[in-house]
Amino acid sequence: MTVETPQFIKVGAGTDxxxxxxxxxxxxxxxxxxxxxxLGGYRSDMRGTKAVELEAHAKSLGAGCLRLDYxxxxxxxxxxxxxxxxxxxxxxxxxxxxxxxxRLVLVGSSMGGWIALRALQELLKAxxxxxxxxxxxxxxxxxxxxxxxxxxxxxxxRDSMAARGYFEEPSQYSDEPNIYTRLLMEDGKQNLxxxxxxxxxxxxxxxxxxxxxxxxxxxxxxxxxxxxxDDVVLTMVRDGDHRLSRAQDxxxxxxxxxxxxxx
Length: 263
Known about the structure:
globular; 8 helices; alpha/beta; two-stranded antiparallel sheet; 22% strand
């Protein structure tokens, strides 16, 4: 069954400790399907439309699903301003290692695509029992701090980051501005994945909107260049935006997820 109220695990120690919220939908009895793992985007949470819809579809197939909120996001503890790729990766890996199944299909949306790729690398490096058998990357934004943001920073934004440690920009999706910290930008350099071949060892399906104002579709093409050895499918949605949350987009994502779960 799906646990409606979140469960929590403690990640980090001392002043760095935070409570990370997660929800699990258990697989059907006897199911051999892998577990879907939802990894959301920057400032998003596990109760968003895509996360909930994909969990429901996984359940309809008999598969389990794990969703989580990074620290400073959604129902998790921690200060958003302390967040960075390394910290949010640590959150995701802690939950996956404690409550995740042995066979996983990682679903990464936007920044979650970066987290998913890094999580896969760390799980492969650790050599434990958990194995990623598929990845669904939705408008993935690997290396976005270096590739998409750094070249576009204005003098005002650079000055703000130097003086205050962060800068703000209006958000299309919230009344509150997006905040990007110097920590996020500097830490991003330690987690780059578009610096060489990405050997995932599993099937990968990328879904990208061609009208995405935040992550241009050319970024998905660049990611594709770094995945030459794997079974990769790239689906371009000609009129799709960054959120890919319309009914037809959700239907496409469900088909993509199903293909990976039942392969």
